[in-house]
Amino acid sequence: MAAYLEFDQVCKFFPGVKALNGVSFAAHAGQVHGLLGENGAGKSTLLKILGGQYKPDGGRLLVDGTERHFTSAKDAIRAGVAIIHQELQYVPELTVAENVLLGRMPTRFGFLDKARAHRLVAEKLTAIGVDLSPSARLADLSIAQRQMVEICKAIMQDAQVIAFDEPTSSLSHRETDILFRLVKELRADGRTLIYISHRLEELYELCDACTIFRDGRKIITHEVMADVPRDRLISDMVGRELSDIYDYRERPHTEARLQVQGLNGKHVKGPQSFAVHGGEVLGFFGLVGAGRSELMRLLYNADARTAGTVLLDGVPVATGGPADAIAAGIVLCPEDRKEQGILATASVAENINISVRRNDLRGGVFLRHKREAALADEFIARLRIKTPNRQQEIRLLSGGNQQKVILARWLAEPGLKVLILDEPTRGIDVGAKNDIYRIIHEVAERGGCVIVVSSELPEVLGISDRVIVMREGAICGELPRAAANETTVLRLALPDGATSASPAPVTAHGASIAAMPTYTETPAQPTRSIA
Amino acid sequence: MSATQLNPAAAASPLISRQWLSDYSMPLAYLVLFAVLSATVDNFFSVTNVVGLMLSVAQIGMVACTMMFCLASRDFDLSVGSTIAFAGVLGAIVLEQSGSVTIAVAAGLGAGALIGALNGVLIAYLRVNALIATLATMLMVRGLAFIVSKGQAVGINDDNFIDFGDTRLFGMPLPVLVAGACFIVFGILLNQTVFGRNTLAIGGNPEAARLAGVRVERLRVWIFLLQGLITAMAGLILASRITSGQPNAAQGFELDVISACVLGGVSLQGGKARIFGVLIGVLIMGTVENVMNLLDVDAFYQYLMRGLILLVAVLLDQLKTRGERR
Lengths: 531, 326
Fold this sequence. Notes:
heterodimer; A: alpha/beta; Rossmann fold; 2 domains; six-stranded mixed beta sheet; 22 strands; about 35% helix; about 25% strand; globular; B: mainly alpha; ABC transporter involved in vitamin B12 uptake, BtuC; two-stranded antiparallel ribbon; about 0% strand; disordered N terminus
């Protein structure tokens, strides 16, 4: 069978980075082809070339045997290539039909023919088994429904190649099932499908073949994905064997250093209290919307509190904004790295120095450029931050390296006492995750308090000395490491009455690559106690 | 688009020169403009004319320094023109009443700082959109200028005060030297202090900056306060040069200042600013106006030209950033 889509020695270079270095692979019609790799491995760059957003610096792209040179997204669409981006691209104020037919609305005597548009789109939606009204506004739909609209659009454009970039990252369990069914139908229809995901379970379920990327190179293409063992996939992606990525070790704890007393505010239900000991890693688990991030933001003075005090080593922390928390030694790596963490257009060095520089100014006023540069270089080396140099704009780094820069910003604080991490490894590859866990344990070993908020249950269980569970805006339970396992934590986290239900919503699709080594190492244990 | 023939080394090297070009395109363009005009326009390349040119943009230059901070923090200030007029009028009236230059200057500067602080508080703490807040203060302050002067120009007779606009040091008029000093001081403030860095940070991403420990609201108020202060100074200098406080002075001044900043490469999206760029932007504005005057171009066409130049500069900037994304 001839390949429908073929990449031949494709290269793409950015200043200082070889994003793609002579990549070749072929995808066949009627197959789902998975692309695997850590962040920054080159998958997204490849997709952008396929979608006409980037021009390759070398190599050939063939669609149905014809060499193609896309100069814009339009070219790609015309050649029958559609990309379903991670961040969906639609007009929220327009209807489903208008979005699907955007730029190609049928007209009658020069006026829009809405009736025909609705009929066309309704037919197509029914054909792919999606229950949506063509006249619904996109803004009123769920993310999953918007994704369906996007897919419908691709089919309307008669796209023979459809590429999905981490489509399930913000979908619920049931929505994922609907998406999978649709992908399988498109495959049966004879289209060529490209599927990028960090979740191995999904890839095994959907993909016929897969290609693994690392550092801008193709490592290998497996024509029959089902035959490839999971360990093999992971070690190919990471480039080394991973044993225990959590690196947990027993540590002595000191007295309670951080005491949160009766903290209350918006999005939190009633006053919340807890304490963290010196040398302790405290995990915060809960379903999305349980109020974990909101509680951390109150503690960090990022949002206004209505009641409560925070004591650090017995001294109340001033409440005039994050700057006061930082001055006291409490720091936060926020959940939304792009929007709240990084200063996107500033350099790596600037992102590291922004806070700590206040302690070391010439005459209390002027910046010390040399010391700042030296500090940045020190942390780039120490945390193994992959960047061409300290002047690089941080937005050009991969997610894991951006997270390390934010960590460097706080580790540079001489008075660091409490490190709060909100979803520290979201969208981060296995290698960088391991580095971040190492840093967490280092801070704890030096007697600091660490709070880790995470939706990845294996991660919470893997690194925490103690787990606090939140549900519907309030702390609902606490488990020492010895008593914390999937069953006990989920029983607390799930709404009442759902306890007996299968814990699938969190484990099956919520667990990502990070969890995989653990799964394979402890096959005999149905509930993974970490004691 | 012959992607196949390109080898990686050849692809990498133009990027460096493109970076260099994008950094220095404006100064280069200005040098070329200056050389061409010197060769083609009579009376352009003379000490008298060039000094006159600089004097004509001295006020714009001073205010552009602080407007740069404003724009870099993703804000906006439309009230500077009105503040210039009000500070001039107030200074003239206080001078008339008290007879003391010191008190007059203090009153003008104090009023400017107060207007700036008001803008800052409205925008930072009460979260009024900067465009609307400063549009409101622009109207109110202009109104105040007319009210305190009863709609009449207020004459200035004090020689000490008038001398300030007239005096030359090393052949340079004092207002030009003050503008130069502004560029140096605010250049240092931007590049060598936490104030400047944090301004760029809140312009780039206010929420991230706040979570990184920047006291965003306080900083915003200071930026606007400085803007008001420097603007009032420019207003007093203008009053000294024209020997009166004019309530209708400097109409449209805010647009000239913002134009100069944008010409100088300050991003309206915030987070990016270069003092040298702003200097070039101010000089381009002044040069074009000067040349049109020398060539006796009708004032109506001058508006057309100034608009066109601003548009071209912004379009060039767009092309540059699009080039970076490719």
